[in-house]
Amino acid sequence: MVLSKSNNLHVVKTLYLCGFAHLKEYQRLTCTNLLTRGKLNTYLADIDREAQERFETLTEQMKQYVV
After folding, report:
1. How much helix, strand and coil, in percent to the nearest 5, is found in the chain?
2. Which one has a higher pLDDT value, 9 or 25?
3. pLDDT in tens, 4-20
4. How far apart are the C-alpha atoms of 11 and 67, rounded to whole Å?
5. N or C terminus of the chain: which is more exposed, having fewer CB within 10 Å?
6. What predicted TM-score, i.e. pTM, was given to this entire model?
């Protein structure tokens, strides 16, 4: 299995946007509080970083099974 950098970035960006969409739809108060306190971008950046780490971990685990 070969994953390109662009594919990797696409997956992470999709997860980032999904996190924001989830906040807007299901956790409106949390989203509003983060936005008004100026912490929404930091929160979403943390989700983005965590998603990237999880993606890399899963990719490494998948490589072990494919080989």
Report:
1. 85, 0, 15
2. 25
3. 555 555 555 665 666 67
4. 23
5. C
6. 0.58
